[in-house]
Design goal:
three-stranded antiparallel sheet, Rossmann fold, alpha/beta, 14 strands, 3 domains, seven-stranded mixed sheet, 29% helix, 19% strand
Length: 354
Amino acid sequence: MTLKNRRIWIGAIAIIALILISLFAAPRSNTLRDGSTYSRAPNGYGAWYTYMQEQGASIQRWQKPLNSLFQPSENSIEEEAVPIDYRPGQKVEKSALLNDGMKRFAPPMVGVGSVPILKDFGHLRGDAPPKNNPKFSNAKKSSSFILHLSSFPQSPITVLQIDNGLGWLDLPTPEWIEQGNVFVRLGIQSRDSLGRRVLVTEAPFTSVLSSPEGGVKIETSRRLTVPPDLEGEFSDLLKDVHGTVVWQETLGQGRLIFAVTSYLAANAYQDEPGNFQFLEQLVNESGYPIWVDEYIHGYKDQEIIAEEASGSLVNYLVKTPIAVIAVQVGIMLLVLIWGLNRRLGPAVRSRMPR
């Protein structure tokens, strides 16, 4: 084999090795958008989200880490002076105050997906802002209210999380559930958060299960199956003779709801009204505002993107697939050493003995 042909073979082997490593070791991102309410693909939830809006439901998208929703920090509360055409001492209806205050704060928040929520009406008395606080230096004494605003929704709420096959990011704390909140999780890979196993059963892959909202089409043979002595720990919401598909558990004043399939009301089931109505009933039964976790699908508010962009070098290295790059470089180095029959240096010619 000539030197030129050897180099061609070495290059081809190196390219094939890189392709194989990229295919098998690269991070999985092709399923990230599965279950997103922004997606119009068959496995997305864009049609159901539009359906809920048409029903007049209080539903919004959450594009921050869920742990910040379960345990909001004090930094999430802002104190601002809002110009409003009222005088100190004048009786003000809370609805009118809310509308005027929202006009002031809503426009800058539209692009980041967060809606300001009045946290404490008890502080809205129409008093003049403090004189010595530079934050309120531009406020008019006779026509400003101090609003305590938070970009985080106040309990109780309902959170809907739809699995994309990449695992769970954040789970609610028992204390958060016990406060009266509701957490709905669609898609259980093997176990729910309480350790109950979901197994493949003899159920047909496609089946239509009965519910108060009509027939619900299910395309999976997986079911939650538990011993009879443990059935009292949760209540079935959708099941057949092979096991449970949707179930709930009560913790304090709140509830945890799980579904085996993540496609319960996906776009592919737009012609199955029972599916859309069943999920609507699950998330809307308590009457709380509904927040859909979109952070799990890669959608982030601008403030979160800015925070992550300004992170430390350590955080950057953690998020970068360094291991994949190191393996690729190592394979290339081994291929070159083997192909050129060299160690880490130039070839040394043997000298003829004299």
